[in-house]
Amino acid sequence: MSDIVKEFNEYRSKMNDKILNDNNKIIKRIFNLDTNAYTEGALDVKTKELLGLVASAVLRCDDCVKYHLENCHKEGFTKEQVVEALSIATLVGGTIVIPHLRRAYEFWDALQEN
Amino acid sequence: MSDIVKEFNEYRSKMNDKILNDNNKIIKRIFNLDTNAYTEGALDVKTKELLGLVASAVLRCDDCVKYHLENCHKEGFTKEQVVEALSIATLVGGTIVIPHLRRAYEFWDALQEN
Amino acid sequence: MSDIVKEFNEYRSKMNDKILNDNNKIIKRIFNLDTNAYTEGALDVKTKELLGLVASAVLRCDDCVKYHLENCHKEGFTKEQVVEALSIATLVGGTIVIPHLRRAYEFWDALQEN
Amino acid sequence: MSDIVKEFNEYRSKMNDKILNDNNKIIKRIFNLDTNAYTEGALDVKTKELLGLVASAVLRCDDCVKYHLENCHKEGFTKEQVVEALSIATLVGGTIVIPHLRRAYEFWDALQEN
Amino acid sequence: MSDIVKEFNEYRSKMNDKILNDNNKIIKRIFNLDTNAYTEGALDVKTKELLGLVASAVLRCDDCVKYHLENCHKEGFTKEQVVEALSIATLVGGTIVIPHLRRAYEFWDALQEN
Amino acid sequence: MSDIVKEFNEYRSKMNDKILNDNNKIIKRIFNLDTNAYTEGALDVKTKELLGLVASAVLRCDDCVKYHLENCHKEGFTKEQVVEALSIATLVGGTIVIPHLRRAYEFWDALQEN
C-alpha cells in the first residue's frame, strides 16, 4: 500500500524540479512562499500544517491533501486529530469532500504503514 | 466496460467502511444525513436524486456524479432525462463541466450494460 | 420587504438589455440557451427549475438563486418543496451555503408577500 | 465602525431563526453539526476555530469568515495569529482571496473597537 | 455613475494600506508578486491584463474583475475586446458568471464616463 | 511520453462523438459555441487560446488545460509564453493550482516531443 506514498512523492519531486529549472520568477517565488508560510511564527508549525490540510481539503485538491497529510504525520499528529480536522473540512465543504476523504484515509494509512 | 461500475463501488464501499469504523461523530452524522436527505418528503425520491446529480455535476465531483448516476439508473430515469439534467449542469457550470460529462456518459453506458 | 424582488429584477433587466444590445454573438447565444434549457423536454419545466435552483445554490450564486426562486414560485412550488431542494444543496455544498440560504429565505418570503 | 459587527449578527440571527423555525430536518441537523464540530475533542476549540476561519477564507465566504473571526476574537487569538492564518489562506487560495482579506481586516478592526 | 469607480478604489486603497502596514511577510510578498506578474515579459502587459481579467471572471471575483477592467481600460483595450474576453469567461465558467458580467458592464461604462 | 497526448485525444474524441450523437440540443449548442468563441474577432485566435488556457488552469480542469495547451502549441506559442500565462493562473488561483501546473508541464513536454 505504501507505494502510493512513494509514487506521489516521486512524481511531485520530478515535476517540481522541471518547473523550478524553468526559471519563471513568479512561479519560483510562489514555491518559495509555500515553504516560508508554514514555518514557525505567531502560530506554530503544527497548527499551520493543519490549516494547510483543511484549506486543501475544502478546495478538494487531492495532491495538496496528500502533501499536508505527510507533513502532519511527520509533525506527530494522531490519526484522531487529523480526522477531526478533516471532519471540519467535510462539514464546511459539504458531501462533495467525501471522495477526497476516502483518498485521504487511504493515504494516511499508507503513511502509517511506512 | 461495466468494470468501472464495479471498481467504483468496491473502492467506495471499502473506504466508507474504514471511515465509519473510525467513529468520528461529525463524519458519521454527515454520512447519515447523506442517506436521509434523499428519502421521500415534500419532493419525491426521483426528483431528489436528480438534484443530487446536478449538484455533483456543477461542482465537478466525478465520484459524486457516478454515485447519483447509479441511483438515477435504479430509479428508472431514461438516458434522455439524465442527459437533459446534465445539459442544465453544463450550461450553468460552463464548458469546464464537459470533461465530467464525458466520464458521466461512459459510466451511464456501463450501468446500462450491466 | 418585496422591494428586494423589484430591485433585483430592475437591475437584472436593465443590465441584460445593455449586454444584449452590445451584440456579442457568444454572449447572446448563451443567453438564448439559458432560456431554451429550461423548456419542456424529457423533463418537465418544474423539475428543470428546481435543478437550476440547486445548481445555483451549490455554486453560491445569490443572483442565480433569486432568479430560480422567482421561477419556482411562479411554477407553483410550495415553500416546503423549495426548502427541501435547498437542504440538499446545503448538504452537498456544505455550511458555506448557509449564508446564501439565509438570503434565499429572505427572497422567498418577499416573493410570497407580493 | 463596529456597526458592521452588529448588523452582521442581527441579520444572521434573524434569518437563522426563520430557517430553524421552518423545521426542515436536514437543515436543522446541519446547523446542529455546525455547533458540535467546533467543540473540544482531539483538537482544542481554539485550533478548530482557526481551521474554520481558513476553510471559510479559501472558499471565499465573507459571512463565514466574519463568523469565525468573531469566535477567534472571543477565543483570545491575537491579530498577528489571525493574520498568519489568513496569509496561509491567501497563499493556498490565491490573489482572489485578497478582496476577502480586506473585508476580514475591516471586520477584525471593528471587533477590536467593541 | 462613476462613483462606483471612486468608491471601489478608495476602499481598496484604504484597506490595502492597512494590510501592508501590518507587515505580515507572506501577504506582503503576495502583494508584491501581484505587481510583478503583470509586467512585460515573454508576454506583453496588455495580454497579461486580459489574462488577469478572465481568471478573475471565471473565479467570479467582482473586485478582481473591477481591478483588471480598470487596468484594461488604461491599457487601451476597446469595449469590444474586453467583452470578447468576458464572453470566453462566460462560456468556460457557465451562466453563473452572468451576474458578474452585469456588474462588469456597469463598471466598464463607469470607467468610460470618467 | 507522447502517449499521454494520444490517449487524451482518443478518449476525448471517442466520448465527444457519443455525446454529440446523442442529439441533446443544449449540449450540442454548447459544443458549437466552444468552437465559435475561439475564432478570430476583436481579439486574435492566439490571445483567445491563452485566455482559454488561463481560465481552465484557475478552474483546475486538467482536461481543459490539456486541450488548450495543445491549441497553444499549434498556434506557435513558446514554452516561456505559456509558462508566463500559467504563472498568472497560479498567482490568481493559489498554490492549489500547482498540482495542475505539474501535469501541464508534463503534457507540454509531451507535445514538444511529438
UniProtKB/TrEMBL annotation, chains A, B, C, D, E, F:
Residues 28-104 form the Carboxymuconolactone decarboxylase-like domain. It comes from the Bacteria. This is Carboxymuconolactone decarboxylase family protein. GO terms for molecular function: peroxiredoxin activity.
